[in-house]
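Methods — Computational structure assignment.
A single polypeptide chain was analysed. Its primary sequence is given first, followed by the predicted tertiary structure written as structure tokens.
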Amino acid sequence: MIKFVLLIVKFMIIERTKTEVIFRLPINVNVDVLQDMADLLEFREIGQKSKASQNQVDLLVKSIKKSRWKTTKEKLGF
């Protein structure tokens, strides 16, 4: 006979006040993960305000990749 145990742990609490949203997390959460989450939220907020077309975004990405590849080749001596 197999027994299943369901353990519910409240990992994150999100609280909304009149002026802010507060995320409460355990102290042992990796700070790098929190920074990644903060960066993602900031990126999404900026993106929502953008008036750039998808074509403009695609051209920008292509330009960045080309520049990055050029820098990488120079560092590696190609």
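Note: The longest helix spans residues 54-76.
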